[in-house]
Amino acid sequence: MYSQAKVIAGGLAHIPVVIAVFYFILTTFNKRALKFVEDSKTKKPEAKAVETKKVAVLKTEASKTESSKTEAPKIVKKKHADVPVNIYRPKTPYEGTVIGNYSLLKEGAIGRVNHITFDLKDSDPFLNYVEGQSIGIMPAGEDANGKPHKLRLYSIASTRHGDDFNGNTVSLCVRQLQYEKDGETINGVCSTYLCDIKPGDKVKITGPVGKEMLLPDEEDANIVMLATGTGIAPMRAYLRRMFEPTEKEKNKWNFKGKAWLFMGAPKSANLLYEEDLQRYIVENPDNFKYTKAISREQQNTKGGRMYIQDRVLESANELFNMIEDEKTHIYLCGLKGMEPGIDEAMTKAAQEKGLNWSELRPQLKKAGRWHVETY
Ligand code: FAD
Ligand code: A2P
């Protein structure tokens, strides 16, 4: 059996062991702490090096700009600070009244495309806009989750003076989205809502938005327009601003450059605003050129559907002579799917002129001369 003295003596004998263990833990911890501090010290310069690298890249860019400044004068992209944006937002949209809604298509056309006009005169603050902007439409009703439908954007098809030149309306060019799914025809929510609305109906409008598709101020600018379907909407506004006599009286913008519209539509009956465009050609033969690609009636050189990119290739030389002129702007609007085709055509067309499109396009973009709005 253990005596009390033996137990005490045994306990005391463990003290050095406990101290030794405690000392071991402490030194190990200290060593790690020291290593961590050392590591952090050595890591800091790495972080600095990354920062320095970033600055170096920026410096290189800046010096590039500096050196190019001496090589040739560059057009600086305008900021358009005075262009109105977001006067009305989704939480407090403006309720505009429909004053017109009619089909833009002829007998035998495919689908449904309407020209729709809203009255803005009671908006306060006034919902003003400029050519090339878009507005948002919030369709009535709720989505599958019982929430109000989200807004959809539509390019404005009228000039700031409106179709009646009184400056208090806005017009859109809307194609009803329709597609087949599991043997069923699905109608797009907002495009169907818009194509169905009647004069007198109230519609929630937001915006205006967008500065990508604005026209330059210069009266001697050249404007090349590449549109498919409803992509004609902003182009219609530009062309009215340039060539519609009453609009011209109002806007005092005396367009003196060349406007060239490439228009893609599936059938002749689907060509939009055709009568106006024909009138502009007759009245402005030296300033307006109109090239159509009617995909389901015309064939390209390979026997396929004729698209605007095929027309671009046919006119490569003339088109690139225009693009080489600093006063030329190019606008692309409509189907997102046309972008690769246009790029390919521009690449080939540029090659024929000894130019490199992959270098030229970013330059045009930087100079604010290449404008794209596809959806
Ligand atoms: P939704 O009910 O929202 O249905 C669209 C959805 O349906 C798609 O997101 C996709 O999920 C699905 N879908 C579509 N097609 C198919 C298919 N083939 N197969 C399977 N699923 C499919 N439109 C115009 O008509 N005119 C304009 O001027 C115009 N301007 C625009 C400007 C901008 C800047 C943008 C971003 C878009 C513009 N649009 C324009 C398109 C417009 O905003 C809407 O996207 C379009 O009207 C469809 O909306 P919706 O509510 O009818 O369709
Ligand atoms: P298609 O539908 O015959 O293939 P809309 O909006 O009225 O349908 O018109 C769009 C036009 O753009 C149609 O002529 C359509 O041709 C054409 N299109 C379709 N896909 C492309 C594409 N990838 N590039 C250029 N045009 C296209």
**SS elements, strand count:** 13
Envelope shape: globular
CATH architecture of the largest domain: 3-Layer(aba) Sandwich
- Strand portion: 15-25%
List low-pLDDT spans.
29-73
Strand order of the largest sheet: 4-3-8-1-2-5
Could you report the average pLDDT, rounded to the nearest whole number? 86
Element-level helix/strand string: HEEEEEEEHEEHHEHEHHEHHE
Helix content: 25-40%
Q: Which ligands occur here? A: flavin-adenine dinucleotide, adenosine-2'-5'-diphosphate
CATH fold description of the largest domain: Rossmann fold
Structural class by SSE content: alpha/beta
SS field, number of helical segments? 9
Provide the CATH superfamily of the largest domain.
Nucleotide-binding domain of ferredoxin-NADP reductase (FNR) module
Features of the shown structure:
alpha/beta, binds flavin-adenine dinucleotide, Elongation Factor Tu (Ef-tu), domain 3, globular, 3 domains, binds adenosine-2'-5'-diphosphate, 6-stranded antiparallel beta sheet, single chain, 13 strands, 9 helices, 5-stranded parallel beta sheet, 375 residues, Rossmann fold
Structure description:
With 375 residues, the chain is an alpha/beta fold. The protein folds into three domains: 1-70; 94-209, Translation factors (Elongation Factor Tu (Ef-tu), domain 3, Beta Barrel); 222-374, Rossmann fold. Helices cover 39% and strands 22% of the residues. The strands form three sheets. A six-stranded antiparallel sheet has the order 4-3-8-1-2-5. A five-stranded parallel sheet has the order 11-10-9-12-13, with helices on both faces. The N and C termini lie far apart (94 Å). The structure holds flavin-adenine dinucleotide (FAD) and adenosine-2'-5'-diphosphate. Flavin-adenine dinucleotide binds at residues 134, 152-155, 173-175, 177, 179, 181, 188-192, 230, 233, 373, 375.
